[in-house]
């Protein structure tokens, strides 16, 4: 990161003095490099950064070197997917790249939570998280005990990032990665999430401990981003 920042600063400094310079940030490449060697394509697509063929990425380079930009990024980006995983992508600077409309949480779940008792609310969120985790882990909900540590269920840091985005998209809850890492179980994660969903300055919601550990009751071509 430090080396990249230095090269970008160097390119800008040269441009200010009228000399040629261009710093290019490359997105994942499909046919060569680290991502290709280590088979990271599926994961990168899941976080909104699908690897692109090297020829497609190199195509715009000729026109860029003759242009006025000092720093550019060449990458294939699934912007809605990236926004789901990182709220920072919703910033105004990305507004021209994102489709219209806000990310909406599951309205049905929100309505059920609004009229649920505290115990039922915990169960609803726990079930929703279990179903989401089952999709991420590519398993079935009945194989995910709600009182078992997330790490013992097979959740690693990369899957945790995917879970963070899914929780935001489906539940409308901006749950920091630290909360996910510190959660002792799915049930614990559900209580943390519910506290954020129901929190208000006057009276923070009391979320009960679970009484059972049973399973759930129901079941782009390259994008160029200029520095300005």
């Amino acid at each position: 990161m430090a080396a990249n920042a230095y090269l970008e600063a160097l390119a800008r400094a040269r441009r200010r003095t009228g000399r040629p310079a261009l710093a290019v940030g490359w997105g994942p490449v499909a046919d060569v490099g680290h991502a290709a060697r280590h088979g990271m394509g599926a994961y990168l697509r899941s976080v909104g950064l699908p690897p692109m063929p090297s020829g497609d990425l190199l195509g715009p380079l000729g026109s860029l070197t003759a242009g006025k930009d000092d720093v550019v990024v060449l990458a294939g980006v699934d912007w809605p997917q990236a926004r789901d995983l990182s709220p920072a992508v919703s910033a105004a600077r990305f507004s021209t790249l994102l489709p219209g409309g806000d990310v909406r949480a599951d309205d049905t779940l929100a309505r059920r939570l609004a009229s649920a008792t505290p115990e039922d609310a915990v169960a609803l969120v726990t079930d929703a998280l279990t179903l989401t985790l089952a999709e991420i882990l590519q398993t079935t909900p009945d194989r995910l005990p709600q009182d078992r540590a997330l790490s013992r269920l097979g959740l690693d840091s990369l899957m945790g990032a995917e879970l963070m985005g899914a929780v935001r998209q489906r539940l409308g809850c901006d749950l920091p990665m630290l909360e996910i890492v510190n959660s002792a179980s799915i049930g614990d994660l559900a209580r943390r999430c519910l506290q954020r969903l129901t929190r208000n300055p006057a009276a923070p919601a009391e979320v009960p401990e679970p009484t059972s550990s049973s399973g759930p009751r129901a079941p782009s071509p390259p994008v160029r981003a200029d520095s300005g």
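The two ends are 20 Å apart (CA to CA). The first strand starts at residue 23 and ends at 26.
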